[in-house]
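Let us work through a complete example step by step.
Step 1: write down the sequence.
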Amino acid sequence: MVRLKDIAEHVGVSVTTVSRVIKDDPTRNVNADIKKRVWLAVKELGYTPNEHARQLVHASEVKVKRTRRIAWLASPGLADDNPYFSRIFKGISETFAKEGYTLVLLNHADLKDEAVFHRIIREKEVEGVLLVDAVEEEILQEIKKLVPVVGVDFNYSDHSISTVDYDREEAVHKGMEHLVEKGHRRIGFIGGEIDGELKSEKRFRGYKKSLSEFGLELKNDYIIDSRWCMEQAYIKTKNLLDRQAHDRPSALLCASDLLAIAGMRAAHELDLKIPEDIAFLGIDNNEMARYVVPALTTISIPQYEMGIVAAKTLLNKIKDELQLDLKTLLPSTLLIRQST
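Step 2: predict the structure and record it as tokens.
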């Protein structure tokens, strides 16, 4: 078992200094370089806090203390400001509340602060972690070694952890199939980048595959990279649609309802009729999609259910009832409204 003394000898400082660093003692200043070396030694030597170590050694005799707390890694305000994630968060929070768990919000700065990471993750102040925002692979793997982890939404769909998501390519295919059935042959796309490039985004990949399947031409000037900004979607859609009828798309498939709503405003300002001159189809089925004029046809994503399934998956891992890393994809549904 690694002790504070071992870390002190490894770094070449006193046990007291190591203790101050690990406890993040605000009453004593420790050189930043020494702090960094101590935390590197903690990771290299695999130091475990004494209390938890005793629980492991006497697991058959001592009942491990339950904190009934779950860390939720997401950008501050995401659950309040983004209608898509707010419904996922509602499913997560209500499911954990029924089981007597509380949620602790973490952000990227917390995970990069060794003192905070050590206190919350290594000392197991939380029993599990739900990841929404992306984190560096090194941090992800360390979290996975210490506590059960589940990823929600696209950031973790290709990682070696349990994930809950929806099939973005299939969702787009449903939308494209509907537009083709309505007679559209010139179909554009409004989306945003992932990892700095549009081509890696799964909804865009679904769009390209569907064009090929339905024998439609891929026209680069029909593709709008909005960078997930409604203002950019509005401006670029207005530029795209301000053309002669034969030179503009007859329909736009949008990677989110918010981008579609921004595009619809641009069409209105150009006096284009929806759907006669230009049709719009979104993805999400957020509340605003029902109230815009005309009401937006969309691919409904079960966000609330994604939250429930993610929470239950993590609870099963905490209870040791689920050891495998599962990839769960929930189904999407086409909702036909007036915009198509």
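Step 3: interpret the result. Residues 83-98 form the longest helix (16 residues).
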